């Protein structure tokens, strides 16, 4: 109850004070609804028409509101990786909330809910969390790191592409499971074959406790490795 009240108050403050300082919002109550829709679509391409229909807003309003939400750091876009490894690249960006707790609040999901095997919100929330952690790590990296997403029109996708100096690439897949199988690394193997020496590593982040190798430079690693992890 206290957490729900805090997030409700936080949203009200950001919308009524921060956003209203620089933008005219005709439908203030639509912003939390729009944020919830974005949270529910984490890891999926941003389709303005779909959001507009679900939020009962016109497309231009949705575009403007998304810009406002990005300006106050409630959301952030992940653009498509600019690459020539395929000619079937989807150029539609993805949008994530920057706060996984806020995303869970807007989706009405509790900690107990997420402990249930197969909860439909778990995958998107884990991907939202990983993206937030990657952004934090990128800001303190000694070398500049760009974060992208990759998706082909025939549905081959890699959740996050990290590109560093000289074009070195790390591909990251996020799996909301404690025991990812070898099939979870198939797109990373495909990317490794096409990039050759540029492919520094492939990582499958998961909810388990142990790390293991899928061969070569592709590994399954617990999500907890993002902030420090000691394997038992």
* Helix-strand category: alpha/beta
| Main sheet: strand order | 3-4-5-6-8-7
Order of helices and strands: HHHHEEHHHEEEHEEE
* Computed Rg: 19 Å
Number of helical elements: 8
pLDDT < 50 stretches: none
Q: Which CATH class of the largest domain is shown?
A: Alpha Beta
Please, what is the average pLDDT? Answer: 92
Specify the biggest β-sheet.
6 strands, mixed
Please bin the fraction of helical residues: 40-55%
How many strands? 8
Distance separating the two termini: 36 Å
CATH topology of the largest domain: Trna Endonuclease, Chain: A, domain 1
The number of domains: 2
Give the overall silhouette: globular
Task: Give a verbal description of the structure.
By secondary structure, the chain is an alpha/beta fold. The chain folds into two domains: 2-80 and 90-112, Orthogonal Bundle (Arc Repressor Mutant, subunit A); 118-226, Trna Endonuclease, Chain: A, domain 1 (3-Layer(aba) Sandwich), CATH 3.40.1350. The chain contains eight helices and eight strands. It has helices spanning 2-22, 30-40, 48-55, 59-71, 100-107, 111-114, 122-140, 186-195; strands spanning 75-78, 94-97, 146-151, 157-163, 169-174, 199-206, 212-213, 218-222. The strands form two sheets. Strands 3-4-5-6-8-7 form a six-stranded mixed β-sheet, with helices on both faces. A two-stranded antiparallel ribbon has the order 1-2. A hairpin with a 5-residue loop joins strand 4 and strand 5. Helix 2 crosses helix 5 and helix 3 (48-55) crosses helix 4. The model has no long low-confidence stretch (mean pLDDT 92).
């Amino acid at each position: 109850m206290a957490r729900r009240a805090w997030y409700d108050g936080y949203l009200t403050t950001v919308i009524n004070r921060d956003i209203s300082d620089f933008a005219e919002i005709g439908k203030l109550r639509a912003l939390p609804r729009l944020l919830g829709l974005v949270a529910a679509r984490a890891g999926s391409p941003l389709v303005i028409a779909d959001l507009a229909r679900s939020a009962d807003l016109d497309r231009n309003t949705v575009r403007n509101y998304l810009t406002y939400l990005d300006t106050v750091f409630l959301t952030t876009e992940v653009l498509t990786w600019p690459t020539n490894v395929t000619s079937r690249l989807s150029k539609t960006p993805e949008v994530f909330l920057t706060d996984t707790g806020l995303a869970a609040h807007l989706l009405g999901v509790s900690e107990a809910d997420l402990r249930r095997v197969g909860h439909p919100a778990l995958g998107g929330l884990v991907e939202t969390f990983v993206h937030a952690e990657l952004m934090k790590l990128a800001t303190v990296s000694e070398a500049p790191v760009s974060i992208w997403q990759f998706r082909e029109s025939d549905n081959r996708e890699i959740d996050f592409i990290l590109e560093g100096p000289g074009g070195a690439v790390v591909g990251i897949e996020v799996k909301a499971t404690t025991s990812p199988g070898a099939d979870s690394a198939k797109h990373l193997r495909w990317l490794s074959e096409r990039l050759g020496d540029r492919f520094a590593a492939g990582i499958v982040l998961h909810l388990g406790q142990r790390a293991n190798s899928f061969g070569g430079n592709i590994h399954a690693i617990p999500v907890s490795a993002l902030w420090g992890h000691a394997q038992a």
